[in-house]
């Protein structure tokens, strides 16, 4: 079994034991320890960044996990992130064990490489599944306060990459109806993934960012941002069904935010395609970031 499928199986086993991976719960702690152990075996140090969530008056502590390459200037950092928490009451395998596992694979591959020119930083965000993405918001605010946000050249978000009625989606940096101004430079990230898929004859579509995930604080702070997405509750179009197969007019992920978002309801081939793209991005940019300039 591939490493990334193995990670998903482990996340499912933890959900079987704890029920879910909701922020501030034992299920989240178990998943975090798993990520930390994997990073350690890959030779990457990680740290927990704790913060307080105030969810309509209910306060609790949780944390992000941050890991980065030892090499590369810390004034020029490329970041990739995936939220590790899930909704209460379900295993959250597509949302977002899939992104967390894909990121773990990219980090593991990069950890084994000995020449890194540019620093790559990985983040497993806590507490995304709220009205606001608390973990990434806290992280961006913290960097802003330290005057370090300038050091982040780009951010790539990975949230839901194994949907069963999938599209291969790249965040649309040219969206005309985006609810926020899209930072300059975001188009280059989109182009990078487009070129990667085109070179492999893999069809892809530009997807709505929705601003519904951890990309939001980065976009707000004007950091060039991109991401990969295979779909949540929105319906697949007829054109998308022609291109990718699957069922037109049905949700791209019919089990989005339900207890059935489990290992039986993910598409592993789709996960492999997206994991390949994320790993390619991390390993390419670690050597050469000219495609982002
Ligand atoms: N709201 C996110 C899932 C989600 C829905 N649309 C997009 C677009 C881009 C990234 C993520 C999403 C969640 O439930 O985590
Ligand atoms: Zn969600
Ligand atoms: Zn999500």
Key traits:
binds D-tryptophan; binds zinc ion; 293 residues; globular; single chain; alpha/beta; Aminopeptidase
Tell me what the structure shows.
This protein is α/β, with parallel strands linked by helices and 293 residues long. The protein has one domain (2-292): Aminopeptidase (3-Layer(aba) Sandwich), CATH 3.40.630.10. Helix content is 38%, strand content 20%. The protein is built from 8 helices and 8 strands; from the N terminus they run ααβββαβαββαβαβαα. It has helices at 3-18, 26-41, 93-111, 134-145, 186-199, 215-220, 238-244, 268-287; strands at 46-55, 58-68, 73-83, 118-125, 152-158, 169-171, 205-207, 225-229. It has an 8-stranded mixed beta sheet, with helices on both faces. Strand 6 (169-171), helix 5 (186-199) and strand 7 form a beta-alpha-beta unit. The protein binds D-tryptophan (DTR) and zinc ion (ZN) (2 copies). One zinc ion is lined by residues 83, 95-96, 128, 159-160, 213. One zinc ion is lined by residues 87, 95, 129, 257.
Strand-helix topology:
Elements: H1 3-18, H2 26-41, E1 46-55, E2 58-68, E3 73-83, H3 93-111, E4 118-125, H4 134-145, E5 152-158, E6 169-171, H5 186-199, E7 205-207, H6 215-220, E8 225-229, H7 238-244, H8 268-287
Parallel strand pairs: 3-4, 3-5, 5-8, 6-7
Antiparallel strand pairs: 1-2, 2-4, 6-8
Helix pairs in contact: 1-2, 1-3, 2-3, 3-8
Bound molecules: D-tryptophan and zinc ion (2 copies).
Structure, briefly:
The chain is α/β, with parallel strands linked by helices.
> How many DSSP helices?
8
CATH architecture: 3-Layer(aba) Sandwich
The CATH homologous superfamily corresponds to Zn peptidases
Number of domains: 1
Instruction: Tell me the number of strands.
Output: 8
Uncertain spans: none
């Amino acid at each position: 079994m591939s490493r990334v499928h193995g990670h998903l199986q482990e996340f499912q086993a933890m959900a079987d034991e704890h029920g879910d991976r909701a922020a501030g719960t034992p299920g989240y702690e178990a998943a975090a320890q798993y990520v930390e152990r994997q990073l350690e075996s890959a030779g990457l140090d990680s740290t927990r960044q704790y913060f307080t969530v105030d969810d309509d008056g209910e306060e609790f502590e949780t944390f992000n996990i941050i890991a980065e390459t030892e090499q590369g200037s810390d004034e020029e950092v490329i970041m990739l992130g995936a939220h590790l928490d899930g909704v209460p009451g379900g295993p959250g395998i597509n949302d977002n064990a899939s992104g967390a596992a894909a990121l773990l694979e990219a980090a593991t591959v990069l950890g084994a490489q000995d020449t890194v020119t540019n620093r790559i930083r990985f983040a497993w965000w806590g507490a995304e599944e709220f009205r606001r993405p608390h973990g990434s918001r806290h992280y961006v605010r913290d960097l802003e306060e330290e005057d370090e946000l300038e050091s982040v050249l780009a951010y790539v978000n990975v949230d839901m990459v194994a949907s069963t009625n999938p599209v291969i989606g790249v965040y649309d940096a040219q969206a005309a109806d985006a609810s926020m101004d899209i930072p300059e430079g975001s188009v280059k990230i989109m182009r990078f993934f487009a070129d990667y898929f085109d070179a492999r004859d893999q069809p892809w579509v530009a997807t709505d960012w929705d601003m519904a995930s951890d990309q939001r604080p980065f976009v707000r702070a004007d950091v060039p941002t991109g991401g990969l997405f295979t779909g949540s509750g929105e319906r697949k179009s007829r054109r998308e069904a022609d291109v990718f197969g699957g069922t037109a007019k049905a949700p791209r992920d019919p089990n989005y935010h339900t207890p059935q978002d489990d290992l039986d309801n993910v598409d592993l081939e789709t996960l492999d395609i997206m994991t390949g793209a994320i790993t390619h991005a991390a390993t390419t940019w670690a050597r050469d970031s000219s495609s982002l300039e």
